[in-house]
């Protein structure tokens, strides 16, 4: 059963879309309740029901695994030459 507030909000929008006629509160409420009951059992667009088939990896799975396994480059620490021996600094 849809929540009372949800029904009321939809009923108000339906009433407004009909030009705010007088004496249609019950009709608007029942239409809103019927609409919300009709969609209550459906899944959101981003969450379709399971196909019950075997899971398939994404098309780019191999590239993602290779990227995850690749050695990470460590960021340079500090500014140029700070804390290092100037004689061993390869950037000079």
Kindly describe this structure:
The chain is mostly helical and 92 residues long. The chain has a domain at 4-40. Helices cover 42% and strands 0% of the residues. It is built from 3 helices and no strands.
Indicate the topology.
Blueprint: H1 4-17, H2 25-40, H3 61-69
Please sum up the structure shown.
It is built from 3 helices and no strands. With 92 residues, the chain is mainly α.
Low-pLDDT sequence parts: none
Largest beta-sheet details: none
Compute the separation of the termini in Å. 74 Å
Total strands: the figure is: 0
Quote the average pLDDT: 77
Q: Strand share of the residues? A: under 5%
Oligomerization state: single chain
Give helix and strand order, one letter per element, not per position.
HHH
Cα-atom radius of gyration? 31 Å
Shape, principal axes of CA atoms: elongated
The share of residues in helices is 40-55%
**Helix-strand category:** mainly alpha
- By DSSP (H or I, 4+ residues per run), the number of helices equals 3
Keywords, please?
mainly alpha; elongated; 3 helices; single chain; 92 residues; 0% strand
